[in-house]
Specification:
TIM Barrel, 465 residues, globular, alpha/beta, binds zinc ion, binds N-(aminocarbonyl)-beta-alanine
Length: 465
């Protein structure tokens, strides 16, 4: 199977030029002008951008959480991701408390194997880590799981104490792997929630009002400090506020190996969404919560100046009917999470590049290359180069669409609402190639369940702390 993409404008994190791309089998074989090759498929990309497939390093598919399970599984979630121009995602396998992390990995392999539209990897969520289990972390790394997520939030569920954080971090640092951190002081937040409930505060907006940004900043500061002592690179996930960002900036200025991602919801949505009529605000109950709008300028500045490295979605969809409704009478019972895997590339292009906030190269870096580098996939993924996987998106920078689950529908996620309903975006993924196979053609899905494969990721390739 070979593909020739002609006349496109190739944009990577560092390049921007017009050339043709020839792929053969699963990889990019040649890039040049007026190449003589014949191909099974020829795609005319005149007027379009030709960019590396998006990489979303933070999704939760088929995840038991909040008394239910996230609404997209590995089939529907990866198909929606493909529609949106994402060709690789890293999801989270979970260790059941007291049980082996390796057993957790097996469970998640069974959920995903043979079902996905695109390639995928796993971070491992560690829920306990006594000394006699530390050897498992090296084994996980050998299996291609070279990053772990630890939670300072959700006491009694995914939360781990600082001792566990330190043990896991030290071992991860020794092994050359990375720690991803959900940084919020869950213990204090739980006290605030308890008090709010006792005062009869039940509406969705209290989810946000009980999670102050200062408690996110405290978590970020503590996570980075422990990581510094444990000598491990730490990557703060779903960073949402100026207060939290300030802690990352201070640490980086001190030379600490601290990194962070933010998500479209924190760049485009804000606290006012919780003020909608009735129970509507539940659609936006996610953790961290949406912040006051002024935080967004700080996050964009972080993206512009390199203090934030990547944009993931934290895609964790729960249907409004029946799932979000679990918290109809109590905000603390609303499953935390929102959909977005399909909309990331268009939202970031529209708000970032069209909005004049980031360059085209930076757009590619933030949505693909940086995650490939951070999580042991570069240069196989995250760029367009001879020898790289042929994960390529033909992106129309001028096409305008209105994100909607209604007619005309742009929505393929298995959830009954879209967080960005009614938002007009300029810039849309039209044709998506995953490892040398067209899986989305002119916005129509033409791939098959099982096209995607598990990605054994490599070790952290940055300077070791
Ligand atoms: O609300 C969210 N983010 N749900 C998913 C779990 C997490 O904390 O990432
Ligand atoms: Zn989290
Ligand atoms: Zn998450």
């Amino acid at each position: 199977m070979s593909i020739l993409i002609k006349n496109g404008r190739i944009v990577t994190a560092v390049d921007d030029y017009h050339a043709d791309i020839y792929t053969e089998g699963e990889i990019i074989k040649a890039i040049g002008r007026d190449m003589p090759m014949q191909a099974d498929t020829v795609i005319d990309a005149a007027g379009k951008l030709v960019i590396p497939g998006g990489i979303d390093p933070h999704t939760h598919l088929d995840m038991p959480f909040g008394g239910t399970t996230s609404a997209d599984d590995f089939e529907t979630g990866t198909r929606a991701a493909a529609h949106g121009g994402t060709t690789t995602l890293i999801d989270f396998a979970i260790q059941t408390k007291g049980e082996s992390t390796l057993a957790g990995l097996e469970t998640w392999h069974a959920k995903a194997d043979g079902k996905t539209a695109i390639d995928y990897g796993f971070h491992m969520i560690i829920t306990d880590m006594e000394d006699d289990r530390l050897w498992e972390m090296k084994k996980l790394a050998e299996e291609g799981v070279t990053s772990y997520k630890l939670f300072m939030a959700y006491p009694g569920v995914l939360y781990v104490d600082d001792g566990t954080l330190y043990r896991a971090m030290r071992k991860a640092g020794e092994d050359g792997t990375v720690i991803c951190m959900h940084a919020e002081n869950g213990i204090v937040i739980d006290e605030i929630i308890k008090r709010a409930r006792a005062e009869g505060k039940t509406a969705p907006k209290y989810h946000a009002l009980t999670r102050p940004t200062r408690m996110e900043a405290e978590g970020v500061h503590r996570a980075i400090s422990i990581a510094e002592v444990a000598r491990v690179p730490v990557y703060i996930v779903h960073l949402s506020s100026a207060d939290a960002l300030e802690q990352v900036v201070l640490a980086r200025d001190r030379g600490v190996h601290a990194f962070a991602e933010t998500c479209p919801q924190y760049l485009f949505l804000d606290h006012s969404y919780y003020e909608q009529e009735g129970f509507e605000g539940a659609k936006y109950v996610m953790t961290p919560a949406l912040r006051e709008k002024w935080n967004q300028d700080h996050l964009w500045r972080g993206l512009q100046f390199g203090d934030l490295q990547s944009i993931s979605t934290d895609h964790c969809p729960f249907c409004f009917k029946e799932q979000k409704e679990l918290g109809l009478n109590d905000f603390s019972k609303i499953p935390n999470g929102a959909p977005g895997v399909e909309n990331r590339m268009s939202l970031v292009y529209n708000g970032g590049v069209v909005g004049g906030r980031i360059t085209l190269n930076r757009f590619v870096e933030l949505t693909s290359t940086a995650a490939a580098k951070m999580f042991g996939m570069f240069p196989r993924k995250g760029t367009i180069a001879v020898g790289s996987d042929a994960d390529i998106v033909i992106f129309d920078p001028n096409r305008k669409e209105t994100i909607s689950i209604d007619n005309p529908c742009t929505h393929h996620m298995r959830v009954d609402y879209n967080t960005y309903e009614g938002t007009e975006v300029q810039g849309f993924s039209e044709t998506v190639i995953s490892r040398g196979k067209v899986i989305v053609q002119d916005t129509e899905y033409v791939g098959r369940k099982g096209d995607g494969r598990f990605l054994k990721r490599g070790y952290y390739s940055g300077i070791k702390p």
